[in-house]
User: Fold these one by one.
Assistant:
Number 1:
Amino acid sequence: MNPRLRPVGLIARREFASRVRGRAFVFGTLAVLVLLGAYAAVLATITAGDDTARVGVTGPAVALAGPLQRAAPTEGVTLTVIPQPDVAAGEAAVRAGDLDALVGGEPARPRVFVESEPPADLERVLDDATTVVVRDAFLTGRGVDPGALDAALAESGPVIVAAEPPDPQAGPRLGLGLAGAFLLFFSIQSYGAMVAQGVVEEKASRVVEIVLSSVRPWQLLLGKVLGLGAVGLLQLVILGGAGLAVAGAAGVLVVGPGLVTTLVSVVVWYLLGFALYATVFAAAGSLVSRQEDTQSVLSPVTITVLLGFVVGFNLLTSDPRGAGITVLSLLPPFSPLFMPARMALGVAPAGQVVLAFALTIAFTAVVLALGGRIYANSVLRTGARVSLREALGRART
């Protein structure tokens, strides 16, 4: 390893180890995992339940068995038709909860026996099946083959030709992109502030003076950013992996090449965005020496990120191709938040992605340079708040 980077690695490892072993990280991560586990258990209970409607038929109403089974899928109902020996046995099965309904009497106007009232979707299935029976009887009485009419109707209707066929995975991939934006926003608010608070604590306790006797300010800054960035990435992997597992178990998410690409882009943009914002927070934290003054220097950054996130989220969900979200996703401070989601939807041309990435890299480099200078000029100054003009002066080494 380069001798100039060895201290950076040591500082990053120290920050990573101290934060990962801390109660806030452990209990916070466990709390979210418990919530995800509870959500998965609820989903499993719901999906494990018997959602099949059971309908008994008896007497002449047995003729409704076929129409009932054909009508059920159109109403989104899973239906099992069970013939009953007589009305009394069928009604007893309904009272015992073995049947949801008993259909008897004439097929054109059947008598439906239920315990209380039939579900709306089951009632629609019964209406559809009765209508089919009456129609078929009417057509047959006039010498028209109902099957031939159904075949002719099946071959009719408009043929939809879409310039851009719908992507069945667009929703899940957009969800991943928005989840990445939220996790980055969450990390900025939590770990970014943690970087600033750590800087202020070291200044107040004079620990930073001991540390800087062995390393340069830029090495300390970079080590903090890398260490806490690794903590945020670890939590992203844990929570993201658990969330993907829950979504997969619920059948909401099907892993495919598009989803893998989206996941990779979310991680890459997350790392880039965290490096950018963590540097800003560290530089801002170095301007003050007391914890009670920290919020005053962090507020402009957090408010800017919050407003950008709210505006961009609304623009993205309403019109992902619009000029507003396009411009916002190209601006470096907000590219890591919204470009992954636009990439997931397939509405970001390759040129825009490359441009946003290049601009973000360049902007991050400028922020690192300015942040390093501010940090170097401010981190050893205690007492009164350091003005931005003084912090941007000639860097101390």
Note: The two ends are 22 Å apart (CA to CA).
Number 2:
Amino acid sequence: MVRIKNIYYMLAYAFQILNEEGYNNITSEDFDYASDLFAAILSKGITNQIKRGLNKEYLERTEAINRPVGKINISASIKQNFITKKQFVCDYDELLENSYMNKILKTTAMLLLRCQEVSIKNKNALKKVMLYFNEVDEIKPEMIQWSSIKYHRNNSTYKMLLNICYLIIEGMLMTEQNGTLKISRFIDNQHMHRLFEKFVLEYYRRHYPELNASAAHIDWDVNGRHIEYLPVMKSDITLRYKNKILIIDTKYYSKTMQTNSLFDSKTFHSNNLYQIFTYIKNMESFFAGKVSGLILYAKTDEEIVPDSDFIICGNYISIKTLDLNTDFSNITRQLNTIAESFIN
């Protein structure tokens, strides 16, 4: 479980742009649904983007006009008898606001406007900004090619907005029931895991710069043929301080313990332990200092809450939980304790 307001704080760390002026009053609001929170963020974000200027793209147009522009389509002009009217069918490019990015923004906004979980206040805010999208088309959500979106200096401010759109469209379940769009209250585990991971990384980058937090690649300590076929090892978070390294592997599951049905017992997830141990041992082979590991679970409502420390083959490994369903000050306290323990 995650408090709705904590989703905002996690997004604020993951996307630093949420710390800009204009989003501040969101923290003072109470949200019952994630979709309502996203609607608030999106309306404010689009407002800021309108002030900066909406993204434009050169789009192909074909039109019969009096003055030749671009490339004249002779065959179409003759076939449609436009020449006798002193007109030409021309193919030309025009810089328009009907860009792919703006289409995604409008499509997402319209989904939220049809969602019962979005408040009247935030629906009105979305309707207001959509007045600037009259020339922008909607597209089918399932047809969006997220991987085709490329960011550069001129459209970088869209990155946070489109990530919010991605969470809404892809990370939340949408079904049609009696003609009304329903959006589930919680983002699915896969997308929450990515947000959880990014949040922890950016938290340490911001508040503990001396730890040089990064999502570091780990080389294999291996010799032999076909090394190129080995899977890439990349940590969620790697903290470095003096002669010490802490590899943090974040996990967001519905259950933090695995069940052995044969013996009716619960154990830590074996794959998670194997993974962190592999990271540690391979990192250790290229680092002269001390390497330790931490598996950090998002807390669930299970009775057993993982909180254990081990020394395995000489390496310190911890399994901890982070309670995301509490006041955010408690979350920061837990993260600070991890950092301070590592430093000391």
Note: Confidence is low (pLDDT under 50) at residues 173-186.
Number 3:
Amino acid sequence: MPGMESVPQQGGDAFGAQFAVPMADPPATGAFGASLAFGTIIGTEDDGAGAEQAAHQQSQQAAPQHPQGHVHAQELMRRDQHGDPLMRRVGRGVRKAVGGSSADLKLESDFADLMARPVSGYRQIAVASVRGGAGKTTMSALIATELARARGDRVLAADADAELGSLPLRLGVLPERSLFDLAEYNPRSFEEAAQFLSRTPDGLWVLSSTRGGRIAGEFALDTFQNALGKVTRYVSSVIVDCGAGILTEVNRGVLTHSHGLVLVTPATVDGALSAKGALEWFAANQQQALITRTVVAMVAHAPQVGADLDKAQQMLTAWGVPVVLVPYDRHAGTGGPLDMAKIGVATRTAVIRIVHEVFARSLGAGR
């Protein structure tokens, strides 16, 4: 895929070396205002997704309500909600048979080599956003699933949302035990710890903060760290889905102990500026090392994006962080359980690149 070339791990520029500046002098007061961010409309192809979304909303409004009991996520989803239309999915099969572009093949080769590297201890990768609604939990689920599919060892997705995290929903599991239960137990083997985990068809292990889709209890950093510490000895990688924000006690604790960070932000003017604000806060609060391990994921929530993403990427890559645009995806946009077979080609490629970038940085992080 054009523009998906590998980025150097130290001070790498994901979209062009001419935008990079030394990390020792971050542009903490860069003049990037909202007026500069507006430009031509950039986005993925509009293949009728807008009309389909409108029809989907109408069907949701007309659907019968469930006043009591648990509503399964599949009840709220339309059938065969693919990220790509039929002809593109056919094209994807053809490309698998005859091979993709040179950039795609290089990314695939580099990714395979990286995934084969052994891990000392375990690597913790946090997925965070400045505010809610950015697509953080969806990205957590996609990143963790892709990593589990590619690695030959155990990968864990942990829900650190202090309220009602939706990570289990996106991964298609409904755990009856939570991290609160694991925190009170002392497992002597992975088999004992696995009693408190769920597992997806892709082999990903899930540690939930909820039981049966319901809030399990008051959430605190020591509770989360206690539970996580009892299972990390048995896994190679942990993807932590943080709650909204970067300044809460739980999220700051998670970021402090993470070897890599995926900062998720909407592909909008406000989203680009909020990501810049987060990087500025890290730089001003003795978190410069975290910046070197950060990857920014700009997520499009509509088929067309009303912002100049080239300028937004230029602003963010000036901090030495790679920026990956995740295009609008119809299947991911349903809000239900994710099926990697239904994720669009461009979305899947973007996720692979994010995993490649942040995992490489996590391996270089000190313990």
Note: The chain has 14 helices and twelve strands.
Number 4:
Amino acid sequence: MSASLFISSTPFDLALHRNKIAEAMSQGKPGSPALTVVQASPETGLAERLRMVRQAAAYVGVFGMVYGNVDAATGKSLVQLEYEAALAAGLPVLIYIMDEDEHLVLPKHVDTGTPALSLSELKSHLSQTQAVRFYESADDLVAKLENDLLRIFAPTAPLSAPTPVAVAVEGTKADPVAESVAGANEAPSGLTGTMASKRYALTPPRFAFFKEKVAHLFQREMPDAVLQDVIEYLLAGNTMSAASALRRGAGISLEDAIEEVRKTELVIVDTVQRHQAQTGAVK
């Protein structure tokens, strides 16, 4: 009997993704690990969900733009509780987050208000604690998952390189946290350079604030000049320039730089949104 792979995601907005994973795993490609996909249905109770997680050989968390149904007792979504159960059980954890810049998504599948804030906080936490991968389509998700499963269950198998994808951060206004972001929409004098090199110039106190939030995300100690370039480009919504600056300053590949910039963006967006919620600031 093959081991089980627990797929955790919100069920309706990511139905195609869940089906594609199940279909790919059922084909049993040569060299692929023998794993049976298990996933909870919308009607599955919390206790049964957590039991399924604990009995799995590995956990796969797929996150889109919906936080999902919330457990009344904990105030957390079912998918978040499944993730926490996987951690508690010591399972291998694979995390995939939708690339908001590349993935097509219907408006009805995008949370707003309190659920959106909860999802943003969860994604920020995941980016800081897990080796997050970003997917731009259901097929891209399956390809990344298959490679990662080979890494976990067949370490000697060759892995293909991750696909680089660009992301962007929206300009937001909220003082003091998001005041530096406001220039992208409301204070043109704060922006410098052409569209290709658009950035928002941070004052020393604002740079120090954002540095404290994101410096630990990088795999190596980052010089302040490089980190400031990355943050200023991100605050202006110029993700590719941020990745290029990181590539040059850290001496890493562009693909690795893009992955690190994505994680940084999640934390910056969450920081700004939480400050907005606390102060009542309006975008």
Note: Confidence is low (pLDDT under 50) at residues 156-191.
